[in-house]
């Protein structure tokens, strides 16, 4: 496996026990020097919010109060591991929920954090359904 190089051509070593160790340093080396700390904060925060750009939300928040179910500061970032087809299905569901909220309830600006929070709360409330789904997938996969 080839070690990554920083923007100045320096080869960065990657420890064998943690393939992601040192990745932050490599990314920091590649950050354009013209980018300000405020720009980095906007980019980082936007990724945590289901891909919505924070700058756009800040402009809207200046004009009117935040219509979302809860503020961004009340969230916790958590990494989950799912199959690509599951992510595709969930993104399709998000688009359908967004469309139905707009057309049937006149609710706009659905954020990723609202959608994913609702999806996780729904899953947590239906543990019998989760058990059935897990057992079904294991049987299908032959485990």
List the helices and strands and how they pair.
Layout: H1 23-30, H2 37-48, H3 54-63, H4 84-105, H5 112-125, H6 127-141
What does this 3D model show about the protein?
The chain is mainly α and 143 residues long. The chain has one domain. It is 57% helix and 0% strand. The protein contains six helices and no strands. It has helices at residues 23-30, 37-48, 54-63, 84-105, 112-125, 127-141. It is extended, with a radius of gyration of 20 Å. The chain starts with 22 loop residues before the first helix and ends with a helix. Mean pLDDT is 74; it is low at 40-61.
User: Could you estimate the helical fraction of the residues in percent?
Assistant: 55-70%
Could you give the count of β-strands? 0
The main β sheet shows up as: none
Q: What is the helix/strand order?
A: HHHHHH
Fraction in beta strands: under 5%
Q: Give the overall shape.
A: extended
What structural keywords apply?
143 residues, mainly alpha, 57% helix
Quick take:
The chain is mostly helical and 143 residues long. The chain has one domain.
């Amino acid at each position: 496996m080839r070690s990554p190089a920083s923007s100045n051509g320096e080869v960065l070593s990657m420890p064998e026990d943690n393939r992601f160790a040192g990745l932050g340093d490599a990314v920091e080396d590649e950050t354009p020097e013209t980018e300000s700390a405020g720009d980095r904060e906007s980019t980082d925060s936007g990724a945590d919010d289901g891909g919505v750009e924070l700058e756009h939300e800040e402009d809207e928040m200046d004009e009117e109060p935040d219509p979302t179910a809860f503020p961004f500061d009340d969230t916790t970032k958590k990494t989950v591991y799912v199959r690509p087809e599951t992510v595709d299905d969930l993104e399709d569901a998000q688009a359908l929920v967004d469309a139905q909220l707009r057309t049937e309830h006149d609710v706009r600006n659905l954020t990723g954090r609202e959608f994913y929070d609702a999806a996780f709360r729904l899953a947590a409330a239906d543990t019998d359904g989760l058990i059935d789904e897990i057992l079904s997938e294991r049987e299908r996969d032959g485990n």
